[in-house]
Structures are given as structure tokens and as C-alpha cells.
Design brief:
By secondary structure, the chain is an alpha+beta fold. The protein has one domain (about 10-180). The chain has 4 helices and 4 strands. A 4-stranded antiparallel β-sheet has the order 1-2-3-4. A hairpin with a 4-residue loop joins strand 3 and strand 4 (about 165-175). It is elongated and about 85 Å long. Bound molecules: zinc ion (ZN). Zinc ion binds near residues 41, 93, 94, 95 and 141.
Length: about 180
Amino acid sequence: MIRRAFTVVELLIAMAVLAIAAAIAFPVYRSAVAKSRETTCINTLHQLHSAIEIYRANYGGEGVYGGVTEMRLPPYLIWMIRDLGLTHAAMRCCVPGRIHPWSGFTVFYPSPDMGANGDWKGWAKYCSEYRDQAILIGDFNHDPNKDLIDSPFVTHRIIGLYVGGQVKVKTKFGQPQMRLWWND
Ligand SMILES: [Zn+2]
């Protein structure tokens, strides 16, 4: 049997084949990681919904659709998590470099620190109209366009928790900070 070394051409072909294989495999691997992170946060949002329902029931706001105070929504998520004795780690977004402080989640109903600028009446009207379909909490961290989060001119991919407890991954053009982005 004659043994011979690889020629340069054969080596180049082998390297090109490997490069193509890596280029195909790498995005698949990355999207698998992204997918598993989305799944983690979908589960976290379901848990947050259960916690919010318990919190509201504790303060007599269950089954109410309207103002933040009437609904007995927690003023802050961190406050509710402490109140119910839950762990912070289990109740926040799993993606590093999150956009929003502490939990990584955006709360769509007005919080007390919004003061006079809090859209209290707007929320009450929106929630009375959309009821279980009203958007409650958003996870903006998995958006491939999160660097352009304020841009109304790109498509965003955001995970949302609705008042009724549904969690949806929505891919849509426009401004996900606007409540109605979630409803039309
Ligand atoms: Zn997340």
C-alpha cells in the first residue's frame, strides 16, 4: 500500500468543507440557546402570574378589571416577591445584560414612582376594555433588535404576560412599549 501526504489542494478543500459545516451548525446552536432562554422566561412569567394572582387575592383584588389600586396589583414586583417570601433569582429574566433594572421585566401598569405622570386613568380604561387580554408584563430582553428598542421602524420579538395569564411571544413591527401593540 502506497502512503502519501495530503496535497495542499486536498487540505484546502477539507478546510473549506469544515468552514461551511461550522457556518451551518453555529446559527442553529445559537438559536437553540436563545430558544431555551425564551422557554425559561415563559415559565418565569407563568410563575409571576400565579404570584400576582395570590398577591391580589390576599388584598381583595381578585377578578377586578380596572384601576391599579382596585385590582390590588403589586406596586413593584420586588415588593410582591418579598411580600410572598419568594426568591428573586427565580423571578427575573435569565438573559445577561438585561435592559430593565432588577427583574429585567417591563410592567405595563403605572407604578407609584411615576407620580402625577402615571397614566392611572389610561390603564383603568385599557384594562376595563381588554380585561384578560390586557398586557401586564413584558420581557424585552430576547429581542434581536433590543439595541433599537425605542425604534418604531423595526420588527421586535417580545414575550408578554397578559392579565388572564396567557404568555405570548409576539414578533411584530412597531413599538412594543405601547399597550395596543399587544392587542392588534
Ligand atoms: Zn427573559
